[in-house]
Write a structure and sequence with these properties.
single chain; alpha+beta; 4-stranded antiparallel sheet
């Protein structure tokens, strides 16, 4: 839905509107599953995220960061 400005996804080149379909080659079927998969990755590791952008599938390397606390 959106990309946090200057966050790990933004720095990796993820864009608003990208449809994430896999993390580390494992399919992701909904947003809850996506959040759980990302949360299971250790901060600082590099992961491959597969997205659909403009009807094309692409793999993007992203360095996992620490999610900021909600205030």
């Amino acid at each position: 839905a959106g990309v946090l400005k200057d966050g790990p996804a933004d720095r990796a080149g993820i864009k608003a509107g990208d449809i994430m379909i896999a993390i580390e080659g494992e399919p992701v079927f909904n947003s809850s599953e996506l959040l759980n998969r990302v949360a299971a990755l250790a901060p600082g590791v590099t992961a491959t995220v597969t997205v659909i952008r403009d009807k094309k599938t692409m793999d993007i390397q992203i360095k996992v960061g620490v999610r900021p606390r909600q205030v």
